[in-house]
Every structure is written in structure tokens, then in C-alpha cells.
Amino acid sequence: MKLARANRLTPYVFMAPAAVIMVIALLYPLGYMVYGSFRAWDPSQNISETEFVGLKNYITLWFDPSFRESLGVTLKFAISVVAVEMVLGVGLALLLDRNIRGMSILRTLFILPMMIAPVVVGLMWRYMYHPTVGTFNRFLKSIGLDGVDWLGQHALLSVIIADIWQWTPFIFILTLAALQSLPQSALEAAKIDGAGGWQQIWHIKLPLMMPVLIVTCLLRLIDAFKVLEVILVMTEGGPGLSTEILALRISRTATEFRELGVAAAMSNYLLMLLLLLTVAMFAFNKIQTARAARLRAAVQEED
Amino acid sequence: MPKIVFDQVSKSYGSVQVLQPLDLELNDSEFTVLVGPSGCGKSTTLRMLAGLETITSGEIYFDGKPIGHLEPKQRDIAMVFQDYALYPHMNIAQNMSFALRLAKVDKSEIDTRVKRVATMLHIDHLLGRKPAELSGGQRQRVAMGRAMVRDAGTFLFDEPLSNLDAKLRAKMRTELAEMRNQIDKNMVYVTHDQVEAMTLGDRIVVMSDGVIQQQGTPEELYKTPRNRFVAGFIGSPTMNFMDGELTEQEGALWVRGDGYLLPVAAEAAARLASHGTREVAIGLRPSSITNVINGGAPVELQIVVSEYLGAQSVLATRCGSNELLVEVASAVPIQHGTTQTFEVNTEEMMIFDRETGLRL
């Protein structure tokens, strides 16, 4: 009896170290943040000295036009980068899914941007966007065109371009992996059935890759909502609030405005948004698994 | 329904030549079976015909027109794949109609054709289902159906039955044979199973190591194999081979080996006379040896195992150091472990050159 009990406990013993680290590194700060979001909290104060204000921070934020603007910028940024990255990434993968000489080198080159630290990417693009000495404007002037005010008038567009440059490879490699694991014989059958290149993509490849594409898209969305460094380095949220995404506003609220409670509440809003996406992803996976199980069950009944 | 001609077609992957230059003619409305052990190049040959593999050298002609450079869809072919290759995201009706929809065939015409073929294959009640909801045998039928709704000139089958269990395979084989008689098209069928080849083929092409060993009707291959490979590949249970030497005694030709001395039939002896070689291998089908003694050539066999198959039994026996399979009627009880006298029908005995493997 004792032995059986010990055996049942064994897995928990092995999981304990990881669980302890989770609690210290994840749950504690998260709880701290949630707790703090209900208090009027200045960085000079110890949290025990702060005043409980209930949902005040959340309500203030909800009616705060700058927060709404920031949320709008974040949504605009996330949706447009992910949309363009999906189209480009999937397109590139479809284009490069073939065996020609040097393809592996080409593929490696394509995923390089993803491996560069975001701060470096920000600095690089800031230099390239520079109104007088930047690469783009120098080029435009050399062919007789006027320079563009990249990080001024078109700041949001410029940061969107930089993000697309960095993260399209992520979609590219995942899509390429999905493409290469497609059942080859189904594609061959489609060729025999008379499908041309586009028809194979439209009728066979895309529908079969759809589960991977949906998960990839959700992962990218989650990431895009959290973007910080590149924009911080390139524009610091300006000019005005035009590129002030939520992560940036949170950091400014905490450090410049010295309102830790409000910053915590803002983080929680973002967290809820991301949680929604994550739940959507898990739900999608669950539906897929359930459907597969149902199909298998149906077949077994038949046999 | 074109006449298909392979002219010196070969295939290499890098420096590895998987298919020696081969010539092959597939006649109109004929059911041709390419058969051979795995890796013999039969599937590659079929895939080159389909346009799924490029041709390294040589050319394939349909009715005299070279088609080696054409895309699969320009070749007017339908194909059934070994793993069925159904489109997992489409239901059965959509799977079967895919080619017709791409060809912009009239919708009502598509419906009629799909219905007709589905009824013929007894899958008409499954049209709304997805492939994952079907059993192996049903998927197999859908794959057939998908090929049949198209009115293609040539049908290609790449080991279509090899993923089915034995019972279902036998059933589908019979249905295929029935279908073959109804459809008046070129059919090319690849298999490693010689029983399938024998039952289905109007003509069989036996391949090994990227070379065509022999082609002919099932009967020709069974009765007059060109070499030891074909003789051993065609027929079940497989042919027995024993090394031996030709000797002349009292004006007659005999073959002597470990544990046996058998007379060579007069007709074969006449052919052997022109060959210098003495070193041979003899081939005996298990059915050419019988335990009914009737004054023929006797041979002493030690019975090792007796496999009871119902009406027939297959005996694993030993003749000297040679292992020999014998097929006998089960009516006579056989005790394993004993040594008995059997009789060889020397008319059916084949003699091969031990060096080249060619039948003499």
C-alpha cells in the first residue's frame, strides 16, 4: 500500500522544482501586478503603504483618450503587420518550396532578420530612415526624388515596415515546414487530375496547411501586441502618440508618470487581450483534436 | 487509348542509374502488369509514364507523338496511388469530381458521372463523407472511382491493393479483373505480387534491377521463363532450384546432383546438345513432384515439415543438402521426419545455365 502511494507521488516530486520556479518567477510577479493594479501606487512607496482604490485605475484608463489612442495604435500595428507578414511569408514559402541548387543558403538568409536582437534592428532602421544621412532618403535624392519624412509624418508606416522585415521569416519557416510535410501523393494526384500551379496552391496546399496557418497567425498576433524595443529605439512612441503602442505606454506610465497602479492596470488590459487570443488558439487546437477523434470513432464503428 | 512506346528510356538519380535504357510497347486496350521485387524500377517506369518523374534519356511516345516533356495533365491519364492519395479536406464526391471540376465540365454532367461510378463501386452512400471517415477498403474504392469518373485514355495503377489486408485484397482483385473486362482502355498496373500480376494481366512485364527480364502472357511466363529469375518469381509456391551436372549414360542425357539423378526429357536434351556447358541448375515446380508412383523418375525426399492448406499440402523436404518444396494432395497422409520416394515429371523440369541463369 505504502509503495503504491509513493509511486503515485513520484511524478509530482519530479515536477516540484519546475513548479517552484514557476511560482517564484511567474505567479508571484503576476499576482503582485494584479494586486498593485487596485492601488494608487507611487514608485517611492512601499506597496504596503499604498491606498486601495478598487477599480478606479481600470475605470480611469477606460475613459482616458491617450490610452484609447494607444490601444488603437497597437491594434492598427498588430493587425496590419500580421496581415502583410502572413501574405508575404506564405507567398515566399510557396515560392521557395522547391529543390534547386543553393536553396538551403537562400533559406538561411531569409530567416536572418529574425535572429537579430530587436534593439539592433531598431537602431539599424532608425539609421536607414534618417531624414538626411539615411539610406532611403539618400537613395531617393540620388535619383532626383524628394526625401520622405519616414519617422515623422509616416512614423507608424515606417515601424510597420521594420516589423514586417523582421518577422516575415517567422511565418516563412513555419509555412515552409508545413508545406514540406504535406502528403506528396495528394499533390501528385492533383497534378494528374489536371491542376496547374495556382490550382494546386488554392485547392490543395492552402486548405491542407490551414491549421498551421491559423496557429502561426495567432502566435504572431500575440507577439505583435507585445512589441516594444524596436519602436522604443526608432521613435520612442512619437511623434506625438502616433507610434505609442501599449507596451511603450505602460513603461512610460510607470517611469515618467510614476503611476505604478495605473501601469499595472494597463498591463492587465493587455494581458486579457492576449489571453483571449491564447484561449482562441487552444480552443482551435481542441476542436481539431476532437474532430479527428470523432472521425476515428466513426471509422471504427464502421469496421 | 493511345499505343504507348518506350524508346530507350532510362532514369538516373545523380550518378545512380535506377533504370537501364528500356524498350517497351503497351498496346491499345491491353492490361499490362509491371511486376518485380521492390527496387526493380517498376514504379519509376510508371511514374515516368505519368509525368511525375522526368526522363533522364530516351523518349516515350503516345501514338507516335513524343510526350516526355509534357505535364501530367496534358497526357490524358488517370492514376490510382498506393496510399490512395485522397484529398483529406474534400468529401468523397468532391474528391471524385475534382478533375472534372478543374476541366470545367457541366455540373449536372459531373453529378451524373460521379453517381454512376459511385454506384458501380458501391460507395454511393459515402459521397458526403470525408476520407478520414472511411475504412481502408472504402478509401481504395474511392481512389479507383476518382480515376474512373475521368474518361482518360490510359489508366495507371501503382500497387493499388498493397495496403489492404489479405482477404480484402483478394476481393478487390476479383473486382478489378471484372472491371478490366468492362473498360476498354489502356491499363498499366504495377505490383510486386505475382498472383495479382498473373490474375489481372493480359501481358506481364517482369522487371529486376532496372532491367526488363521478360514480357509475355501469364502462361508464357509460367511455362517458358527466359531465365532463372522469372522462373523463380512467377508461380506459387516458388520453383525449386538445385545445382547439377549433365552426364551421358547409355546414350541418354541425365542430370546428376546432390541426392538425385534424373533423366532429361528428349525434347530438352535435343536443345542441350548444342550447348557446351555441363554445369547447370535444374528448376522443378512444387507441382511437378508427386507422391503418386506411376513409373516415372523417382527421387528420395526426407520430409521436414508438412504444411496443411486444405485440399493441398506443401511439404518442405530435403534432397541431399537441397531444400525442396513439394505440393501434394492432402488425401494421402504424410508423416514428417520420414523419407519417401517421390516421382518427378521430367517433362516439366527446366534446366538453367548456372553461370548466366538463362534457361537452356
Automatic annotation (TrEMBL), chain A:
Family, similarity comment: Belongs to the binding-protein-dependent transport system permease family.
Membrane topology per record: Multi-pass membrane protein
GO cellular component: plasma membrane
Compartments where located: Cell membrane
Protein's name in the database: ABC transporter permease
One Pfam match: BPD_transp_1
Origin species: Actibacterium mucosum KCTC 23349
Stored PANTHER family: BLR7065 PROTEIN, SPERMIDINE_PUTRESCINE TRANSPORT SYSTEM PERMEASE PROTEIN
UniProt cross-references to PROSITE patterns, sorted A to Z: ABC_TM1
GO BP, one annotated term: transmembrane transport
InterPro entries noted in UniProt: MetI-like (IPR000515), MetI-like_sf (IPR035906)
Keyword Hydrolase: no
Automatic annotation (TrEMBL), chain B:
Pfam families found in the cross-reference section: ABC_tran, OB_MalK
Superkingdom in the source lineage: Bacteria
Record-level GO cellular component terms: ATP-binding cassette (ABC) transporter complex, substrate-binding subunit-containing
Protein name: Sugar ABC transporter ATP-binding protein
Keyword list, A-Z: ATP-binding, Nucleotide-binding, Transport
Coiled coil: none
Lineage, uppermost ranks: Bacteria, Pseudomonadati, Pseudomonadota, Alphaproteobacteria, Rhodobacterales
GO MF annotations, alphabetized: ABC-type transporter activity; ATP binding; ATP hydrolysis activity
